From TrEMBL:
Residues 1-36 are annotated as: Disordered. Transmembrane segments: none annotated. It comes from the Bacteria. InterPro entries: DinB/YfiT-like, MST-like. This is DinB family protein.
Amino acid sequence: MSDQPARWTRSTIYPDMWADPDDDPRNSEGTSPDGELATLQDFLTNYRLTLRMKCEGLDAEQLARRSVPPSTMSLLGLLRHLAEAERDWRNWISDGDPLPKLYGKRDADFDEAVSEQAEVDAAYSALAREQDATDAALAEHPDLGVRLGKDGIAVRELLVHRIEEYARHCGHADLLRECIDGRVGQ
């Protein structure tokens, strides 16, 4: 016997999928977006939805459950980390003083992710707020070639980096979720 959960999926059509295609909010059927900016924004939106899907239906203890020692990674930590990353990306495009960290010292986003519902609610709220603020800041610069901030980062580079960060952490979320309750990724 193993204490690992059995693999499972909510999908009834395809046994290797997270959800049935008709129930997937990341619907990719139909025409893809026109233009580079719309395409990048679509990929970012889908990875953001994927992360939320990986966290749905879990309680505070499950969201805060660590992966494997000595790692402090958890789904709740990922939510907090990505809120911190969104805030930091605004620092990259600003000429002013950097915004203060949300969670304090380095790795506090993971280290201090505790299994309390108030922490979970605060993490979701912070992530939505920081995503909206970064989206709004970048919306002021629709030319992807424009260079911003002290280091002159191109808007395109920042958007691609955001997609990469979410995509990488969605892979972590796949593994974390499967260890929690056996639900497999899609």
